[in-house]
Amino acid sequence: ITSSNSVDERLIAICQLLEQHIDYYNWVGFYFKNGDKNELKLGPYVGEPTDHTIIPFGKGICGQVAVSNKNFVVPDVSAQDNYIACSITVKAEIVIPIFLNGENIGQIDIDSNTPDPFSEEDERFLEFVCEQVSEIL
Ligand code: SME
């Protein structure tokens, strides 16, 4: 990842690294606050294309993290009422907020086809990734 790449290219490279090296990370993407609207917009990602390119705050796992400012680990997506399904193969999800100057400006979203795969180690690692991401934005 070199500084001559654009932000989007660098974010895609991060998605690719994560998806390729961690076998239970099957869809990896970024959502960011869409201007001054109360919604998220899909950014760079790897994995199956999703119809959910805009997510209102409060809706789904991603929309809830936009409001709560907290990590959201979902071991079993079928047990969630407020969930937006992107693919029937997905069993679990983790969403970690990205903070810039203390403000929740987006998130990394990872879907897994493996049930209950995410540990506190994933949370700490992805918090670190999100801190690094906030520094290149
Ligand atoms: N499942 C997410 C929607 C985004 S897709 O996973 C790519 C949610 O419930 O917010």
Structural topology:
Blueprint: H1 7-21, E1 27-33, E2 39-46, E3 54-56, H2 60-68, E4 72-74, E5 92-100, E6 103-112, H3 120-136
Antiparallel strand pairs: 1-2, 1-6, 2-3, 4-5, 5-6
Bound molecules: methionine sulfoxide (SME).
Methionine sulfoxide (SME) binds at residues 27, 29, 50, 52, 55, 60-63, 83-84, 86, 93, 109, 111.
Taking the alpha carbons of the first and last residues, their distance comes to 14 Å
Low-confidence stretches: none
CATH topology: Beta-Lactamase
Structural class: alpha+beta
Calculate Rg over CA atoms.
Answer: 14 Å
Summary tags:
137 residues, alpha+beta, Beta-Lactamase, six-stranded antiparallel β-sheet, 29% strand, globular, binds methionine sulfoxide
Describe this structure in words.
The relative contact order is 0.18. The protein starts with 6 loop residues before the first helix and ends with a helix. The chain has 137 residues and is an alpha+beta fold. A hairpin with a 5-residue loop joins strand 1 (27-33) and strand 2 (39-46). The longest helix is centred in the C-terminal third of the chain and has 17 residues, at 120-136. It has helices spanning 7-21, 60-68, 120-136, and strands spanning 27-33, 39-46, 54-56, 72-74, 92-100, 103-112. It has a single domain, classed as 2-Layer Sandwich (Beta-Lactamase). It has a 6-stranded antiparallel beta sheet with strand order 3-2-1-6-5-4, sandwiched between helices.
